[in-house]
Amino acid sequence: MGKHRRISPAKKRHMARIAIGMSLAVTGGAVMAPPALATTGAQNPLNAPAAEVPQLSWASATSSASAKASASPLLTIAEGLPKVSARQLLAIAKEQIGVKENSSGGGTKFHSWYMSSPRVKETIARDGGNVRGYANAPWCDMFVSWVGEQAGIRPVVGWDAYTVTHAEWFKNNKRWGTKAEPGAVVFFDWDGGDSVYGIDHVGFVEHDNGDGTIITVEGNTGNGEVEQRIRPKSQVVGYGYPVYLG
Question: Which residue range or ranges hold the Peptidase C51 domain (predicted)?
Answer without folding.
Answer: 136-220
